[in-house]
Amino acid sequence: IWSVGCFVAEMFLGKPLFMSSSETEQLPLIIERLGLPTEQSWPWGAKCLKGNRYLEDAVNIYKKKEKADSRFGKLRLREYLDDFAARVRTNDGIGSVWAKMIDAKAIDLIVNMLQLDPAKRLTADEALAHAYFTEEPLPCDLESMPEITGEYKELGTRQKRQAEREAAKAA
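The structure corresponding to this sequence follows.
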């Protein structure tokens, strides 16, 4: 569900929610948006922070950024998404087609799929039953979906590169 939450957020935002080039860079971004695990928010996660060098490094990176920029980490996930939605509503140039569709129910769905504590995170069944999926536009039956035809450039490029690698190995 965490991955689906990240995907749904990216769909609305038009960019990854936790964009980074490594896990070491990603963890401070998650902490920035969701906060440090505490005994109340995620007891097991709070215990993991103690004595784990990797996690302590991520926390230290977060704290350095917070110290250098007083605004860093002040917008938690719900507020970050609310702020994004408000900017989309006031500026037609921001975001993707999906960005125009973000609303309170979409934000609630994302926030509940991205809970730090897995026990508090929505299950797949709970996510599918979320109020977001009961509003317009309603999902349709697969039979009602249009058939998509055409060229899939990315897939074709991957297949071409794979064939080139295989040919190079064979040579």
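Residues 153-170 form the longest helix (18 residues).
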